[in-house]
Amino acid sequence: MSTMRPSRSRFTVQLLALTALTMTLCTGTRVQNAAASPYEDGSGLALRSGATLAPPKILDLGSDPVGISRVVGNRDGAERRTDTNTEVTYELQAAVLFAKDSGRLSDSARSRIAAIAREIEQRAATRVRVTGFTDNLGSSVHGDILSTQRADAVRDVLTDDLRSEAVTFETHGFGERRPVASNATEASRRENRRVEISFVCRAPSPSV
């Protein structure tokens, strides 16, 4: 004679009822609807009868105020521009701007910086940060001095081109600190010898 086993759902209801009774005896607290049959949505997850799922939350991925939106560089890597929602940064290799071990700008460098000054004006920027960097050749003291001289030289051209008291400048020379490449090869050291010009935008890009 075969013995019929209770169904799985009946066993579940009995187990929940026993749990509710145990909690009542131990804590004196009555559990409401503890033995209510669960509802399965097909995903393997169960909801108590009468319960509802919370509405899904939609993530706004476009609201990041500082997320990088675009990075553009020329083919030889001598110049790179990074745009975020609030700031533009130009990264110019020192070889484009200066002779070797020099803090004096070339004539071609002045015209390039003048173009950046025009964008600073168009974007209604009032704060500009100019930062110089070197590779790790030579002493760190020499690198600090040279990178500061180069940052100051770029700032001076921007100041002359903008001729605006509304724009304030911040300059730094970090020498060999904060490299973007390993300094293991001449190609990587060339990447580290650079000047960065950053400004906070208060007006949209004229190309938009």
UniProtKB/TrEMBL annotation:
Residue ranges annotated for the OmpA-like domain, each copy included: 85-203
Record PROSITE patterns: OMPA_2
UniProt keyword Glycoprotein, yes or no: no
CDD domains membership: OmpA_C-like
Gene3D superfamilies to which the protein is assigned, alphabetical: OmpA-like domain
Gene Ontology, cellular component aspect: cell outer membrane
Major localization class: membrane
Sections of the chain in a coiled coil: none
Subcellular location: Cell outer membrane
Family matches, as InterPro entries: Bact_OuterMem_StrucFunc (IPR050330), OMP_bac (IPR006664), OmpA-like (IPR006665), OmpA-like_sf (IPR036737)
Signal peptide (from-to): 1-22
Swiss-Prot/TrEMBL keywords: Cell outer membrane, Membrane, Signal
Tree of life domain: Bacteria
Listed Pfam families: OmpA
PANTHER family, per the entry: LIPOPROTEIN YIAD-RELATED, STATOR ELEMENT OF FLAGELLAR MOTOR COMPLEX
Name used for this protein in its record: Secreted protein
